[in-house]
Amino acid sequence: MNSAALIGGTGLVGFQILSALQKVRHEPTIYAIVRRDVASSTAKTKYINEPDSAKWGSTLTNLAPRPDVLISALGTTRAQAGSFAAQRAIDYDLNLALAKSAKDAGVETYVLISSAAVSSKSMLPYSKMKGELEDAIKALGIPYTVIVKPGLLMGTRPDFRAPEAMLQAVAKGLGKISKPWLTDWWTQDVDVIGRAAVAAAQECCEGTREKGIWIVEQKDIVRLGRHE
Fold first, then answer.
1. pLDDT higher for 116 or 176?
2. Which of 26, 198, 204, 225 can bridge 20 by disulfide, Cβ–Cβ 3.0-4.6 Å?
3. How far apart are CA 194 and CA 206, in angstroms?
4. pLDDT reading at 219 higher than 90
5. Mean per-residue pLDDT for 184-206?
6. pTM for this structure?
7. How far apart are CA 146 and CA 221, in angstroms?
8. What is the C-alpha to C-alpha distance for residues 156 and 137, in angstroms, rounded to an integer?
C-alpha cells in the first residue's frame, strides 16, 4: 500500500483507521477528505478540506498519485442528520457515489465499515439501508471489495448515546472476566476495528488475498486487529 484515501476519518472508527494508517511500517501517503479543518497536513498525511460533500467524488478522482485503497468509515445518525432521509443521503447515497468514483479512478481496493447483522431484507430501516449499501457495493465489481462488520462499538463518543452506553457498560464488565468468551463475538474496541480495516487493506494490496469480496466478520476483526 503506497497511498490510501480515507472518508469519515473524524468519526469514532475513522479516527482509529487514520491512526492505524499512520503506523504502517512503510508510511503510505494518506489523503483524508474532510468537511472542515481538523489538523495540519504533514508530509505523509494530507487533509483535504472540502465542505461540500457533493464534490468529494471529483476530489477523489483527481488525487495524484491515485490511491491504492479507499477506506470509508462514513456514517451518521438520524438524530445528527435530522431525518432518516437525510441520514440515507449520507450513509447510502454518498457512500455509494464515492465507491463508484473510486472504481472509475482505478482504485483496486475498497474497504467499507458496515455493521454486523444488517440485511437488505430487514424490516428495520437502518439495518435495511446498511444491507442495501453492502449489496450495491458488492455489485460494483471493485477488484478487492472488503466489508468490515463490527458489532457494538467500544469507544468514547463526543455525543452521549444512552442505549449504547448501557451496552458498553455491560460489555466492559463481561470483558474483565473474559473478552474471548464473553464479548469478542458481539462487541469490539474501536482501535481494534481500525487496525483490522487497515490490515485487511494491506493484505489485498500485497496480493495475499484473492480478488473478490471479503466479508470481515467480528471474529476476523479480532484476529486482524488485536493479534496481528
1. 116
2. 198
3. 19
4. yes
5. 92
6. 0.90
7. 12
8. 29
Q: What is the mean pLDDT of residues 14-25?
A: 95
Per residue in 46-64, pLDDT (tens digit) is 999 999 999 999 999 999 8
Q: What angle do CA 126, 85, 109 make, to 5 degrees?
A: 65
Chain mean pLDDT for the chain? 90
Q: How far apart are the C-alpha atoms of 62 and 76, rounded to whole Å?
A: 26
Q: Which sign, positive or negative, has the C-alpha torsion 141, 210, 113, 125? A: positive
> Which are the contacts of 198, defined by CB distance < 8 A and separation ≥ 6?
17, 20, 21, 24, 71
Q: Considering only the C-alpha atoms of the chain, give the largest distance between any 2 of them, rounded to a whole number of Å.
A: 50
The full 3-state SS of the chain, as one line of letters, equals: CCEEEEECCCCHHHHHHHHHHHCCCCCCEEEEEECCCCCCCCCCEEEEECCCHHHHHHHHHCCCCCCCEEEECCCCCHHHHCCHHHHHHHHHHHHHHHHHHHHHHCCCEEEEECCCCCCCCCCCHHHHHHHHHHHHHHHHCCCEEEEECCCEEECCCCCCCHHHHHHHHHHHHHHHHHHHHHCCCCEEEHHHHHHHHHHHHHHHHCCCCCCEEEEECHHHHHHHHHCC
State residue 179's pLDDT score.
73
- Give the mean model confidence (pLDDT) for residues 91-117: 97
Cβ-proximal residues to 43 (8 Å cutoff; 6+ apart), any chain? none
Cell 500485497 sits on residue:
206
Our measurement of the distance from residue 226's CA atom to the centroid of its chain's CA atoms, rounded to an integer in Å, reads: 17
C-alpha cell at 112: 467499507
Q: 7 with 33: CB under 8 angstroms? A: yes
